[in-house]
Amino acid sequence: MIGNIMAGPADSKTEGECSVTIDTTELLNLTYCDFALIHELLEHPPGPNAKLRAAIAALPDIL
Q1: How far is CA 38 from CA 12, 41, 42, in A?
Q2: pLDDT tens for residues 40-62?
Q3: Is the model's pTM score more than 0.70?
């Protein structure tokens, strides 16, 4: 094991749900290769693909 990443529910919307999120968080054990890949993707995310560009273009102008 080289790195650890905390993983848990990412959709907590209210303060009351915070304790549930904290209680259900898990610790993932990663190999060095997995940790390096995740770190690289977080530091240098890939550009948007055609589907993402189309979704962005379809958003209303008020956003």
Answers
A1: 23, 5, 6
A2: 999 999 999 999 999 999 998 87
A3: no
